[in-house]
Amino acid sequence: QVEDYAIYMYIPGEITASLEENIGIHDLLIFPNPTESFISIHFDYSDTENITLYIRDIQGKLVQNKTINQSNKITSKLDISYLEKGIYTISVGNSNGKKTSNFIVK
What distances in angstroms separate CA 2 from CA 35, 36, 101, one per listed residue? Predict the structure, then answer.
């Protein structure tokens, strides 16, 4: 039997936009998931502001961040081979808010 779980994390001091239109980020994809050595992040972006990407561990500790110059379609490949096995949260956003998703390092 396969069960489906959702994990929600609250990180104090961060505000998440509830509507994609507010931040201009659409169709956030993270793959492969689960992964061992890298993840690819892909999304459409309709704003002119640079985007910041944050990766946090399950306890909310920041383990990586990266600034991405604005573009219409964004694909970024990140080396995560240094991360320990576990669940991580990736957030992409600008000053208007962020979109968040989870991935697993196995």
Answer: 19, 22, 21
